[in-house]
Write a structure and sequence with these properties.
19 helices; alpha+beta; Rhopdopsin 7-helix transmembrane proteins; 5-stranded antiparallel β-sheet; Beta-Lactamase; 5-stranded mixed β-sheet
């Protein structure tokens, strides 16, 4: 029936194009359920088309009958796959229930088995070289199954069409129209006439039906980015056109030469001709391929760019500067020149307003309305939504007239939100392409990647701007604070000097009259000519003790003043520390005996312990430490003085059996006017000035030494004076 080479070539071209498209669909995303099912559907159509083509050729009755049954055998899974395709589109996962899928597969397998039995086609007659099959009762369940699965698939597509909007709606319209037309024509002009009337008039037109489906599918891919295959299909078109031209041209040449040379008969020369033609095809294939690639590239790839190269250039721009204006200008310039976009705007927002805007391209005739721009940027980002965070004008539903009207007024095609850590900081607004074409899938993918990188770069630039402003403000504040501190420090030094002078003068002025008062009180208490009666004697004792304590306080304050003003003078000489300690020991032994305290002094070695220092100042230190031990040690306690050498250090330890000092109170001991809150002083009725240990510490420090303290509550304390030893 199809001995005409033109018809055969056309059939083969349709078959080839269908297989290429099927393969491209599957390769594009083999993990997607929609891609898998559409790939299987296309492959099944290809196999069915090939078997159907063979069934129409002039073979024996047995072969023709087998081929016709096989065509029904392959038509059954076509209907099943069409239903599954409509059910799954455009999801990436298969959501049909397992029991429903098993039922569908079982029905499909049962009808496929029935198609191979005599119940589908009982026999076939060859009339004028054309097979005329005789339909059997087995075609009835086949027809019912095909009809139900087709109507079911169309119904599902219709429901999905009602729920969809934007570009998905346009895709479904085109693809549904192609499938409905193909299956409608196959059922109405081929299956029903053959099954009921044994009429095969329209059978040769079956390739046209599948070609219509393929053309509409290709249109959906090219025009509406169906399954994100635009670039792949465009490249496939190149090879398809090449094959069409080669097959049609060389088949015509082969047929014409064969008729001319052989007169329709087969001989050796007619066998050599295909060989020569094959060699010619092989030699001319590559030049023709390059020619068609050049032609189609000018049509389909006039705006072609290398995504990796664009990303690299943008990365360099974003890494080269932290200046916001320079960064924004570089990003917009690169995007507009690479993708051939008419204009672009980068807007940054905060709270409910736009805080910064930069534009590039043809923006001179476009009025900027901040409120509208703010609205579309916020519309592009839905934190809790699973949809893509992008607005494409063509994909917007007509239900969102307000957003679409804003984009139409501003000639905005794409809005990309700039998001960092789920915070919307701005948006990238792009106009249409110079060519007037829609943005391709590769364009969209590139822009999504770029938007994320731009958001981070812009956030860094904003942080840099904030840091710069903060540094400027901080520098000014530090400068002002430094000036104020200098002024305050100068004033404090003046006040401190006045304080020291006041203390020094006051101490000098107070010491003289207080000494006189003390002397007169002593004379009054110790005169022998007159007896002083109580309570006068008691009052005079109190006055005498208070005057003595006040004189000590004045002396201590004068000493502190001299220390802090660096006015204290040391009469440095070689002194024997043991002699000084012995002198203090002898002076205080009487007080220890009065309290029945075991008071001892010992040296580790029988030698002289020399150091360089002021004898009187060191005597004052030792007297202060030992006096404190006597004050705070209870009756019948013990105090041990021990002098030893530790390498090149002299160590005088004063160990008592007093109440001890808590660890947290020990740090207060050597501070001015510090008094501990613990019951350390419960055994003493004498009130100290709070300056003795401070003065002692300072005097020892002037002798390049230090004072250490070790104490445990309830067990007593040990104060140790460490001084550099002078080797004699």
């Amino acid at each position: 029936m199809f001995s005409n080479p033109y018809v055969t070539s056309f059939f083969m071209v349709v078959l080839f194009f269908n297989m290429v498209l099927t393969l491209m669909v599957y390769i594009r995303n083999p993990k997607s359920a929609t891609h898998k099912i559409l790939g299987l559907l296309g492959m099944t159509i290809s196999i069915w088309l090939f078997i159907f083509f063979l069934s129409l050729q002039s073979f024996s009755q047995t072969t023709s009958l087998l081929l016709i049954r096989l065509s029904i055998f392959m038509a059954t899974p076509m209907s099943t796959l069409f239903f599954l395709f409509a059910y799954t589109l455009p999801n990436t996962k298969f959501h049909i229930r397992k029991n429903e899928l098993l039922l569908l597969i079982g029905l499909t397998g049962l009808i496929m088995i029935m198609a191979l039995t005599p119940y589908s086609f009982t026999s076939v007659d060859i009339i004028d070289g054309t097979p005329q099959p005789q339909a059997g009762p087995g075609l009835i369940p086949f027809g019912i199954y095909v009809l139900i699965s087709t109507i079911g698939g169309v119904f599902i597509l219709y429901k999905r069409l009602l729920r969809s909007d934007g570009i998905e709606r346009e895709q479904l319209k085109v693809i549904a129209f192609g499938i409905i037309i193909m299956y409608g024509l196959l059922i109405s002009t081929i299956f029903l006439p053959v099954a009921i009337f044994q009429n095969t008039t329209f059978v040769p037109f079956s390739p046209l039906y599948t070609l219509l489906f393929l053309v509409l599918t290709s249109y959906a891919i090219l025009k509406h980015r169906f399954l994100d295959m635009r670039i792949v299909v465009v490249r496939a078109v190149v090879y398809t056109l090449l094959i069409v031209v080669v097959v049609v041209t060389y088949t015509s040449i082969l047929y014409g030469i064969s008729l001319f040379i052989t007169g329709g008969e087969t001989n050796i020369r007619s066998s050599l001709i295909p060989m020569l033609i094959t060699i010619t095809v092989v030699l001319s294939f590559q030049p023709l391929r390059q020619l068609f690639e050049s032609i189609t590239s000018k049509i389909f790839y006039k705006d072609k760019y290398d995504s990796q190269d664009v990303l690299w250039k943008l990365s360099r721009t974003m890494a080269s500067t932290l200046e916001l204006r320079e960064l924004s200008h570089g990003i917009l310039k690169e995007l507009l020149s690479s993708i051939k976009i008419s204009y672009g705007t980068l807007a940054l927002i905060r709270s409910s307003s736009i805080i910064w805007v930069d534009s590039a391209g043809k923006t001179h005739d476009k009025a900027f309305k901040g409120k509208d721009v703010f609205t579309v940027i916020h519309e592009s980002y839905k934190p809790k939504s699973q949809d893509e965070q992008i607005i494409i004008f063509e994909e917007l539903s007509e239900r969102k007239n307000d957003i679409k009207d804003i984009m139409r007024e501003h000639e905005i095609t794409i809005v990309l939100p700039l998001v960092v850590r789920k915070e919307l900081i701005g948006g990238l607004i792009l106009g249409e392409k110079h060519s007037g074409e829609i943005y391709s899938s590769d364009d969209i993918d590139l822009l999504k990647i770029v938007a994320h990188e731009v958001a981070i770069a812009v956030r860094n630039a904003l942080s840099f701007e904030e840091i710069k402003r903060f540094n400027i403000t901080l520098e000014e504040e530090v400068k002002d604070a430094t000036t104020n501190l200098k002024s305050a420090n100068k004033r404090l030094k003046e006040l401190d000097l006045l304080k020291d002078e006041f203390v020094s003068i006051a101490s000098h002025e107070l010491r003289t009259p207080m000494t006189a008062i003390k002397s007169y009180l002593w004379m009054a208490l110790n005169q022998s000519e007159q007896e002083i009666k109580q309570p006068l004697k008691k009052y005079l004792d109190i006055s005498y003790n208070s005057t003595e304590r006040l004189i000590r306080l004045v002396n201590d304050m004068l000493t502190v003043s001299r220390i802090e003003r660096n006015k204290i003078e040391l009469n440095n000489e070689k002194v024997n520390v043991a002699d000084i300690v012995q002198l203090v020991f002898d002076e205080l032994k009487i007080s220890a005996d009065e309290k029945h305290i075991a008071f001892t002094f010992s040296t580790v070695e029988k030698k002289k312990y020399f150091t360089k220092g002021d004898k009187e100042k060191l005597r004052e230190v030792f007297q202060n430490l030992i006096g404190n031990a006597l004050k705070f040690t209870p009756e019948k306690g013990s105090i041990a003085l021990r002098l030893a050498s530790r390498g090149k250090i002299l160590a005088l330890s004063v160990t008592d059996t007093g109440s001890g000092i808590p660890q947290e109170e020990q740090q207060k001991l050597f501070k001015k006017f510090s008094k501990i809150e613990y019951s350390y002083s419960k055994h003493s009725s004498q009130l100290g000035t709070g300056l003795g240990l401070y003065i002692s510490k300072q005097i020892v420090s002037l002798h390049n030494g230090t004072i250490e303290v070790q104490s445990e509550v309830g067990k007593g304390s040990t104060f140790t004076v460490l001084l550099p030893e002078l080797i004699s």
